[in-house]
Amino acid sequence: MTGEDGPPDDLGDLLRRTALGDLDAFESVYRELSGPVFGLAQRILVDRAQAEEVTQEVFTEIWRLAARFDAERGGVRSWVLTVAHRRAVDRVRSEQAATSRMERVGQLVPEASPADDVPDQVEHRLEREKVRRCLRRLTEMQSEVVRLTYYTGYTQREAAELLRVPLTTVKGRLRDGLVKLRDCLGVGI
After folding, report:
1. Which of 33, 50, 70, 71 is 20 to 30 A from residue 126's alpha carbon, by CA?
2. Would you say the C-alpha torsion 162, 167, 169, 174 has a positive or negative sign?
3. What value, to the nearest 5°, has the Cα angle with vertex 165 and ends 180 and 56?
4. Is 3 strand, coil or helix?
5. Full-model pTM
6. Contact yes or no for 108/63 (Cβ under 8 A)
7. What are phi and psi of 104, to 5 degrees?
8. CA dihedral 115, 117, 122, 124 (to 10 degrees)
9. First and final C-alpha spacing in the chain
10. Per-residue pLDDT of the chain in tens (189 residues, 90 and over written 9)
């Protein structure tokens, strides 16, 4: 069925099914909207890696909050893009606040030339890619808990409530995930 929000199925119906835990419906929503979400995030953030992270965070949030969607207030596409816009703007603000804090405590040297930063930028990019590769080795449940607690900023208790599992389950998944990450990265966590 073609809906107002676009083919192949009505996004409203797909989102309602997602709210009921239908992974196939969620995948359809993702396929339909991941491009526009990523494009919006990249326009705001400029950095491709951060745009990818924000896109992933947006769809994690959509999976969790699908039941809160109210079709009377607008379309699915608009709702998802609003969530994406807020996430991207929050990321920009967070980065700006972190930079401001670092400058205030003298951690950044404003006189450094852009060429001086190249080795640090390359090293940082390689480290980020290694972390992403290691995150992909986690089970889906471990990855979800790690992302919620470390990337999205939820407490373990909040993650347990969002996932509707006991706190001990979240703690166990987080511990196991961090052990796998430590082993993969070759560092102490």
Report:
1. 33
2. positive
3. 60
4. strand
5. 0.51
6. no
7. -65, -35
8. -170
9. 49
10. 444 444 444 999 999 999 999 999 999 999 999 999 999 998 988 889 989 999 999 999 999 999 998 888 889 999 999 999 999 888 888 877 777 777 666 655 555 555 556 777 777 777 777 878 888 888 988 888 888 777 777 788 888 888 889 999 989 998 898 888 888 877 544
Q: How far is CA 109 from the centre of its chain?
A: 30
Q: Which two tokens stand for residue 81?
A: 């893009």
Rounded CA separation 13/32 (Å) = 13
pLDDT tens-digit series, residues 80-111: 999 999 998 888 888 777 777 776 666 555 55
Q: Which tokens hold the place of 131?
A: 């972390």
Q: In DSSP terms, which residues pair with 3 in a beta bridge?
A: 6
Dist CA 87 CA 92 (whole Å): 9
